[in-house]
Amino acid sequence: MPIYNKLVRDLIPEVIEKNGKNCTTRILAPEDHLTEIKLKMQEEALEFKDAEEQKDAVEELADILELVHAALAVYEVTYEELEQVRLEKKVKRGGFSEGIYLLEVEDI
Fold first, then answer.
1. pLDDT digit string (tens) for 24-66?
2. Helices (DSSP H) in the chain: which residue ranges?
3. What is each CA distance from 70 to 8, 33, 76, 93, in whole angstroms?
């Protein structure tokens, strides 16, 4: 029997049971939930990095966004509040849309 010990989407236990299998789960405490969200975010970011097809990349981005929403719930922060922080940072430091790649910085 495979042992996973990882955060999964909320409906995965139902999917497993519909496939005629049993699974064991537990509900994580908020601090453990946040730790597992961070680990899952790393996993999904690596899968996004490795995605070769646009469809696959978009699916990985959707997983990352779902994890962002889960983290916000743990932090008790709304998506609108996150968006405000994003916009404030964009005004101060810009976004990433222009593809600027810093090569080096020289003291003058």
1. 999 999 999 999 999 999 999 999 999 999 999 999 999 999 9
2. 12-18, 30-50, 54-75, 79-93
3. 12, 9, 10, 26
Q: What is this structure's pTM? A: 0.90
DSSP 29: P
Q: How far apart, in whole angstroms, are the C-alpha atoms of residue 39 and residue 6?
A: 9
- Give the Cα separation of 76 and 5 in Å (integer): 25
For residue range 67-81, what is the model confidence (pLDDT) as tens digits?
A: 999 999 999 999 999
Measured in whole angstroms, how far is the alpha carbon of residue 10 from the centre of its chain?
15
* CB-based contact 51:57 (threshold 8 Å): yes
Distance CA 45, CA 105 (A): 28
Distance of CA 21 to the CA centre of its chain: 27
Burial class (CB in 10 A: 0-12, 13-18, 19+), 40: buried
